[in-house]
Amino acid sequence: MTGKAGGAQAPEAGGTGDIRVLVVDDQVLIRAGVAALLRAAPGMEVVAEASGGEEAVALAAEHRPDVILMDIRMPDLSGITATERILCDAQPPAPRVLVLTTFDLDEYVYAALRAGAAGFLLKDAGPQRLLAAVTAVAGGDMLFAPSVTRRLVEAFTRRAEASPSAPPGTALDALTSRELEVMLHTARGLSNAEIAAELMISEATVKTHLNRAMAKLGLCSRAQAVVVAYENGLVVPGTGN
């Protein structure tokens, strides 16, 4: 049996190649329904369920899942804070956090991105969309609901229009020119392989530059790097740069 809320022991993945998932939601019916959907899907393994943020932090450290389905509003510790703690404390490879919520609000989107979430999906997305999202983020992609993506771009565009002549933020001054290039292409949505081809360097070198840039900026995830690039003017929505 897979782990239940309360920290029951779950079996090891056993090298099957299944995507190991931790489900976090304070509403028992929703948590149970999502977990049941995942258990019934081929290639998925629910390693544990958590009913709150504090429990999620503990179970993430214990089970080291590949993907965490994270609710936002929980009574003891928010999903945003839990995500920050999990990702900043995780040993590599860190889990990929997919925020799953009923609240399509800007404040949660931005907070989830800054915390390092790899995706943001609404609970009304449907079973197949959820399964596809888990697979996508487990494979290293960033994923956002279409409405979320549209509103993020609109918000960043409004910021750019409000201060069109603002130079890139001083937060990026510590980066080398190559680290800035890698950050720029990362924020444009390119994969490591695509960045390597664009800059004519190896994927390993791309990874090294991105990791160094993230370390200098105190970031825990690629998603945070994207947010910082936009917020500091390295990338301007709608310009292709």
Task: Describe the structure in brief.
By secondary structure, the protein is an alpha/beta fold. It is built from 10 helices and 6 strands; from the N terminus they run βαβαβαβαβαβααααα. The chain has helices at residues 28-40, 53-63, 79-89, 106-115, 127-138, 146-162, 177-187, 192-199, 203-217, 222-231; strands spanning 19-24, 44-50, 67-70, 96-101, 119-122, 143-144.
What does it look like?
The protein is an alpha/beta fold and 241 residues long. Helices cover 49% and strands 12% of the residues. It contains ten helices and six strands; from the N terminus they run E-H-E-H-E-H-E-H-E-H-E-H-H-H-H-H. A six-stranded parallel β-sheet has the order 2-1-3-4-5-6, sandwiched between helices. It starts with 18 loop residues before the first strand and ends in a 10-residue tail after the last helix. Residues 20-138 form the Response regulatory domain. Residues 168-233 form the HTH luxR-type domain. Keywords: DNA-binding, Phosphoprotein, Transcription, Transcription regulation. This is Response regulator.
